[in-house]
Amino acid sequence: MKFWCSHAWTDGRWQADVRLETDAQGLWSRIETGVAAAQAPDAQRLGPVLPGLVNAHSHAFQRAMAGLGERLDPQAPQDDFWSWRERMYRVAAALSPQALETIATWLYTELLAQGYTQVCEFHYLHHAPDGQRYADPQAMSWALVRAAERTGMGLTLLPTLYMRAGFEGGALRPAQQRFVSTPDFIVDTCERVRAHGRQHGRQLLLQAGLALHSLRAVPPEVVREFSLRGAPGPIHIHAAEQPLEVAQCLQHLGARPVQWLLEHAGLGPHWQLVHATHIDADELAGLAASGAGVVLCPSTEANLGDGLWPLPQGLAQGVRWSIGSDSQVGRSWRGELRCLEYGQRLALQRRNIAARHGGQTSSAAALFEAALAGGSLASGLPLGGIALGQRADLQELDTDHPALLGLPVDSLLDACVFSEPGPQARRVWVAGRPVATDLMPLRADWQQLLAQLWPGARAASPSF
Ligand SMILES: [Zn+2]
Question: Which residues is 159 bridged to in the sheet?
Answer without folding.
Answer: 123
